[in-house]
Amino acid sequence: MTILTDITTLKDIKLLVDTFYAKVQKDEFIGPIFNEKIGNRWPEHLEKMYRFWQTILLEVHSYSGSPFPPHKQLPVAKEHFDRWMEIFTATTDSLFVGPLAEEAKLRATNMAEMFNYKIEYFRNAAENLKL
Protein backbone atom coordinates (compact mmCIF):
# COMPACT_ATOMS: atom_id res chain seq x y z
CA MET A 1 0.00 0.00 0.00
CA THR A 2 1.25 3.44 -0.94
CA ILE A 3 1.57 5.97 1.85
CA LEU A 4 0.18 9.29 0.71
CA THR A 5 2.12 12.50 1.30
CA ASP A 6 1.27 16.16 0.87
CA ILE A 7 1.71 18.31 -2.21
CA THR A 8 5.20 19.78 -1.91
CA THR A 9 6.79 20.04 -5.36
CA LEU A 10 6.06 20.98 -8.95
CA LYS A 11 6.20 17.25 -9.72
CA ASP A 12 3.28 16.77 -7.27
CA ILE A 13 1.35 19.62 -8.93
CA LYS A 14 1.88 18.03 -12.35
CA LEU A 15 0.68 14.66 -11.07
CA LEU A 16 -2.47 16.23 -9.62
CA VAL A 17 -3.22 18.34 -12.70
CA ASP A 18 -2.48 15.56 -15.22
CA THR A 19 -4.50 12.96 -13.31
CA PHE A 20 -7.41 15.33 -12.77
CA TYR A 21 -7.66 16.54 -16.36
CA ALA A 22 -7.27 13.00 -17.73
CA LYS A 23 -10.42 12.17 -15.76
CA VAL A 24 -12.16 15.38 -16.86
CA GLN A 25 -11.47 14.66 -20.53
CA LYS A 26 -13.13 11.24 -20.21
CA ASP A 27 -16.05 12.36 -18.06
CA GLU A 28 -19.37 12.00 -19.89
CA PHE A 29 -20.87 15.12 -18.27
CA ILE A 30 -18.14 17.77 -18.31
CA GLY A 31 -15.63 16.19 -20.70
CA PRO A 32 -17.38 17.34 -23.89
CA ILE A 33 -17.43 20.97 -22.69
CA PHE A 34 -13.71 20.97 -21.86
CA ASN A 35 -12.73 19.03 -24.99
CA GLU A 36 -14.68 21.35 -27.29
CA LYS A 37 -13.35 24.53 -25.66
CA ILE A 38 -9.73 23.40 -25.40
CA GLY A 39 -9.58 21.31 -28.57
CA ASN A 40 -6.00 20.36 -29.41
CA ARG A 41 -4.56 22.90 -26.93
CA TRP A 42 -4.46 20.50 -23.95
CA PRO A 43 -0.65 20.70 -23.50
CA GLU A 44 -0.89 24.52 -23.35
CA HIS A 45 -3.81 24.35 -20.91
CA LEU A 46 -2.02 21.86 -18.65
CA GLU A 47 1.12 24.04 -18.58
CA LYS A 48 -1.03 27.00 -17.52
CA MET A 49 -2.66 24.88 -14.80
CA TYR A 50 0.74 23.76 -13.49
CA ARG A 51 1.76 27.42 -13.12
CA PHE A 52 -1.60 28.38 -11.58
CA TRP A 53 -1.48 25.67 -8.89
CA GLN A 54 2.24 26.17 -8.28
CA THR A 55 1.52 29.84 -7.55
CA ILE A 56 -1.49 29.07 -5.33
CA LEU A 57 -0.06 26.16 -3.33
CA LEU A 58 3.73 26.47 -3.42
CA GLU A 59 3.94 30.28 -3.53
CA VAL A 60 6.20 30.10 -6.58
CA HIS A 61 4.86 32.99 -8.62
CA SER A 62 4.89 31.42 -12.07
CA TYR A 63 1.29 32.26 -13.07
CA SER A 64 0.02 35.66 -14.03
CA GLY A 65 -3.27 36.57 -15.55
CA SER A 66 -6.93 36.40 -14.77
CA PRO A 67 -8.41 32.90 -14.69
CA PHE A 68 -12.06 33.90 -15.07
CA PRO A 69 -12.37 35.49 -18.56
CA PRO A 70 -11.74 32.26 -20.54
CA HIS A 71 -14.58 30.63 -18.59
CA LYS A 72 -17.10 33.46 -18.87
CA GLN A 73 -18.95 32.15 -21.94
CA LEU A 74 -18.87 28.43 -21.12
CA PRO A 75 -22.24 26.65 -21.32
CA VAL A 76 -22.09 25.50 -17.70
CA ALA A 77 -24.29 25.57 -14.62
CA LYS A 78 -23.93 24.62 -10.96
CA GLU A 79 -24.19 20.90 -11.80
CA HIS A 80 -21.08 21.18 -13.96
CA PHE A 81 -19.11 22.85 -11.19
CA ASP A 82 -20.36 20.22 -8.73
CA ARG A 83 -19.07 17.46 -11.02
CA TRP A 84 -15.76 19.31 -11.51
CA MET A 85 -15.36 19.49 -7.71
CA GLU A 86 -16.33 15.84 -7.28
CA ILE A 87 -13.57 14.80 -9.68
CA PHE A 88 -11.04 17.26 -8.22
CA THR A 89 -11.70 16.16 -4.63
CA ALA A 90 -11.56 12.45 -5.46
CA THR A 91 -8.36 12.93 -7.46
CA THR A 92 -6.68 14.95 -4.73
CA ASP A 93 -7.73 12.48 -2.03
CA SER A 94 -6.45 9.53 -4.08
CA LEU A 95 -2.99 11.08 -4.49
CA PHE A 96 -2.23 13.27 -1.47
CA VAL A 97 -2.92 13.92 2.17
CA GLY A 98 -1.92 16.96 4.20
CA PRO A 99 -2.44 20.68 4.65
CA LEU A 100 -1.64 21.65 1.06
CA ALA A 101 -3.91 18.93 -0.31
CA GLU A 102 -6.69 20.36 1.87
CA GLU A 103 -5.77 23.87 0.71
CA ALA A 104 -6.04 22.74 -2.92
CA LYS A 105 -9.56 21.42 -2.33
CA LEU A 106 -10.57 24.59 -0.47
CA ARG A 107 -9.18 26.84 -3.21
CA ALA A 108 -10.87 24.74 -5.91
CA THR A 109 -14.19 24.92 -4.05
CA ASN A 110 -13.92 28.69 -3.68
CA MET A 111 -12.97 29.10 -7.33
CA ALA A 112 -15.84 26.89 -8.53
CA GLU A 113 -18.34 28.83 -6.43
CA MET A 114 -16.99 32.19 -7.62
CA PHE A 115 -16.90 31.15 -11.28
CA ASN A 116 -20.44 29.80 -11.08
CA TYR A 117 -21.66 33.00 -9.42
CA LYS A 118 -19.94 35.23 -11.97
CA ILE A 119 -21.11 33.19 -14.97
CA GLU A 120 -24.69 33.35 -13.69
CA TYR A 121 -24.33 37.08 -13.02
CA PHE A 122 -23.10 37.84 -16.55
CA ARG A 123 -25.67 35.50 -18.08
CA ASN A 124 -28.51 37.20 -16.16
CA ALA A 125 -27.18 40.67 -16.99
CA ALA A 126 -27.12 39.77 -20.69
CA GLU A 127 -30.68 38.43 -20.47
CA ASN A 128 -31.87 41.61 -18.73
CA LEU A 129 -30.35 43.73 -21.51
CA LYS A 130 -32.45 41.83 -24.04
CA LEU A 131 -35.68 42.65 -22.16
Automatic annotation (TrEMBL):
Domain of life: Bacteria
Keywords tagged on the record: Heme, Iron, Metal-binding, Transport
Keyword Transport: yes
Listed name of the protein: Group III truncated hemoglobin
Organism the protein comes from: Flavobacterium fructosi
